[in-house]
């Protein structure tokens, strides 16, 4: 087994994120360090179940847990009330109690939905996250955001539920299709723009593909710090939404056919170009960010018009009254929140599309 890195997240309750190879094979023994023997409901999707469910179930049972599993059809289109209700009914049929646990095995959709089910069921039971994609490893498995999508937009119903543990098996990354790996690269590059030059350089010098565990650990460490300071997104945590206003609009316009990471890449490139052309950046960054995204096989623009994107974005949850809060990149390692009137969004997006 390769070496395991651990990162503490000091929320209440605190938990540990473990990163390394082989963790799905040993998940049972790792979880016994934080859980007494109990029932564990593994929630996964139709892509991940054939790859890893047997391994996880075997490891959990070997460590003394009683395991049941629920598999839903893979894809963002499953992240809705219907799947959530089916998972909740499953947990009830399996007689899970408050001392039992949900295990989210998969990518961002699975983590969000299984986490939300755990937050709702019996008014909240524990959840462990077993991310199998780069996107869930670098971002969504850490920090306790859980949600489903509504017709009005993405992630509009959800809860904060910090996981009891996160076990990120980096061996899973080897089986990821290139486009799915790229989805995670988009969130990681976003984190580089937020954090500092030394993280951003890991995308420019090829470390992301050569040693993804190093990048995952850097991204998780950065995110853990933000979440510890602002767990419920009252202020600083909003920075993690860099690129996401336009990204969610792109996803919505596409009927969720465009994956989240690809939309984040385009959203990040568009807001960087807008910031630069409106004179909000401290240095030229838009071309550098776009080059980095393109190097990872990600889009840097979108086919949708500024009008369509602005309309879709204004039903997004970040709208508060007549203002919308945008995350503006000033330079690599320095972004700021900017509240703008909703009427300014259209020209801002237009500036980002035209560059
Ligand atoms: N993905 C952004 C956050 O966790 O706040």
Question: What would you note in describing this structure?
Answer:
This protein is an alpha/beta fold. The chain folds into two domains: 5-175, Rossmann fold (3-Layer(aba) Sandwich); 178-230 and 242-354, Dehydroquinate synthase-like - alpha domain (Dehydroquinate synthase-like, alpha domain), CATH 1.20.1090. It contains 14 helices and twelve strands. The protein has helices at residues 27-32, 49-62, 81-93, 108-120, 134-140, 178-194, 197-204, 207-210, 212-229, 244-253, 260-277, 286-295, 306-313, 345-354; strands at 5-9, 15-20, 39-45, 66-72, 101-106, 126-131, 145-150, 153-160, 165-169, 319-320, 323-331, 334-341. The strands form three sheets. The chain has a seven-stranded mixed β-sheet, sandwiched between helices. Helix 3 (81-93) packs across helix 4 and helix 5 (134-140) runs parallel beside helix 9 (212-229). The protein is globular and about 60 Å long. The chain binds glycine.
Short description:
Helix content is 44%, strand content 21%.
Question: What is the domain tally?
Answer: 2
Count of helical regions: 14
CATH fold type of the largest domain: Rossmann fold
Distance between the termini: 47 Å
How big is the Rg?
A: 19 Å
CATH architecture of the largest domain: 3-Layer(aba) Sandwich
Named once each, the bound ligands are: glycine
Let me know the average pLDDT. Answer: 96
Overall morphology: globular
> Helix proportion of residues, in percent?
40-55%
Give the class-level CATH name of the largest domain: Alpha Beta
Major β-sheet profile: 7 strands, mixed
Low-confidence stretches: none
Structural class: alpha/beta
């Amino acid at each position: 087994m390769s070496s395991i890195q651990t990162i503490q997240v000091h929320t209440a309750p605190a938990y540990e994120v473990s990163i390394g190879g082989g963790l799905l094979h040993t998940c049972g023994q790792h979880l016994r360090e934080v859980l007494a023997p109990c029932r564990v409901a593994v929630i996964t999707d139709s892509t991940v179940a054939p790859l890893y469910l047997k391994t996880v179930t075997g490891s959990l049972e070997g460590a003394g847990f009683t395991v049941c599993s629920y598999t839903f059809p893979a894809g963002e289109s499953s992240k809705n009330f219907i799947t959530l209700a089916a998972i909740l009914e499953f947990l009830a049929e399996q007689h899970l109690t408050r001392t039992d646990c949900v295990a989210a095995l998969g990518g961002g959709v699975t983590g969000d939905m299984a986490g939300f089910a755990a937050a709702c069921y019996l008014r909240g039971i524990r959840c462990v996250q077993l991310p199998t994609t780069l996107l869930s490893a670098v971002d969504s498995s850490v920090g306790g955001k859980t949600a489903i999508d509504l017709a009005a937009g993405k992630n509009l119903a959800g809860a904060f539920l910090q996981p009891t543990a996160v076990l990120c098996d980096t061996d899973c990354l080897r089986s990821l299709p290139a486009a799915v790996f790229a989805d995670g690269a988009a969130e990681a590059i976003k984190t580089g723009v937020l954090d500092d030059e030394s993280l951003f350089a890991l995308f420019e010098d090829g470390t992301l593909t050569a040693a993804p565990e190093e990048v995952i650990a850097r991204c998780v460490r950065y995110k853990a710090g933000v979440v510890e300071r602002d767990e419920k997104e009252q202020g600083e945590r909003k920075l993690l939404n860099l690129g996401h206003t336009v990204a969610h609009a792109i996803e919505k316009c596409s009927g969720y056919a465009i994956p989240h990471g690809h939309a984040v890449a385009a959203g990040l490139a568009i807001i960087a170009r807008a910031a630069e052309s409106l004179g909000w950046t401290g240095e030229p960054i838009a071309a550098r960010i776009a080059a980095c995204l393109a190097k990872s096989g990600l889009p840097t623009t979108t086919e949708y018009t500024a009008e369509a994107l602005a309309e879709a974005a204004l039903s997004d949850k970040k709208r508060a009254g007549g203002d919308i809060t945008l995350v503006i990149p000033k330079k690599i390692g320095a972004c700021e929140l900017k509240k703008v009137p909703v009427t300014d969004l259209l020209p801002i997006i237009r500036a980002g599309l035209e560059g």
